[in-house]
Amino acid sequence: MTGELKAVDSNTLTGFGMTFKQVAPYVFRSTNEYNIFLHFTMNSGQVEKVSMMTSDFLPLANNMKWFTVFSTIAVIFCVIYIVVSIIVFIINSIRNRKKTVQRTQLWKFNITLNLAGVAAIINFALLAYRALNYASYASLKLHFWINYIYIAVIGVCIIMILKLWGKTTSTKMQKISYILSTITAVLLIVLIIGWELYK
């Protein structure tokens, strides 16, 4: 999660929807009933980290601020595209349930990209929910391994799509679908690596 702490005066901070008052040097306590403590670790006059009982907050570098904006746009795009593509797949499957439809290998790898994307997004959501509810680090390792598996599956699918691209006859709409699925999968990998959701 990200947030912003602002100094109101020399003894008061606001952030995360709360107000904090200084109770000792570099130690602040929330003024609400939760009594949350923030401890500031300083280095050469700069904030190195802000610690709570359960976690540490690190200053966000300027390039990470841009990455946060990129991440928001990327997540919205990925979720919308994957949901729409899965809905289209279900509708087509229902329409063609009485027909014999030949599915190409390229199509199969494409649908694998999208189904893996659903699994990755669900895994992101569970990881975020559990981390924000202070699950132990050891219990979160399962989510990191799922992300490793996702990256491996996507790598195989993209290699096979590139290999089969010129060997399979596809419509223009199918090609657009394959390209968008690949872009979506790569964006999700960038988010996993950028936000270090693997360690």
Summed up:
The chain has about 200 residues and is α+β, with helices and mostly antiparallel strands. The chain is built from four helices and seven strands; from the N terminus they run E-E-E-E-E-E-E-H-H-H-H.
Mean pLDDT: 91
| Helix-strand pattern | EEEEEEEHHHH
Structural class, from helix and strand content?
Answer: alpha+beta
Q: Give the DSSP E fraction (strand runs of 2 or more residues).
A: 15-25%
Count of helical segments?
A: 4
Q: Radius of gyration, rounded?
A: 23 Å
Largest sheet: 7 strands, antiparallel
Number of domains: 2
Strand order of the largest sheet: 1-2-3-4-5-6-7
Instruction: Bin the helical content.
Output: 55-70%
Q: Roughly how many Å apart are the termini?
A: 16 Å
Q: Quick one: how many beta strands? A: 7
Task: Write a concise keyword list for the protein shown above.
199 residues; alpha+beta; 2 domains; seven-stranded antiparallel beta sheet; 4 helices; 57% helix; elongated
Note down, in words, how this protein is organized:
With 199 residues, the chain is α+β, with helices and mostly antiparallel strands. It folds into two domains: 6-57, no CATH class; 62-194, no CATH class. Helix content is 57%, strand content 17%. The chain has helices at residues 62-95, 105-132, 137-164, 172-194, and strands at residues 6-9, 12-15, 18-24, 27-30, 37-43, 46-51, 56-57. A hairpin with a 6-residue loop joins strand 4 and strand 5. Helix 1 packs antiparallel against helix 4, helix 2 packs antiparallel against helix 3 and helix 3 packs antiparallel against helix 4. The longest helix has 34 residues, at 62-95.
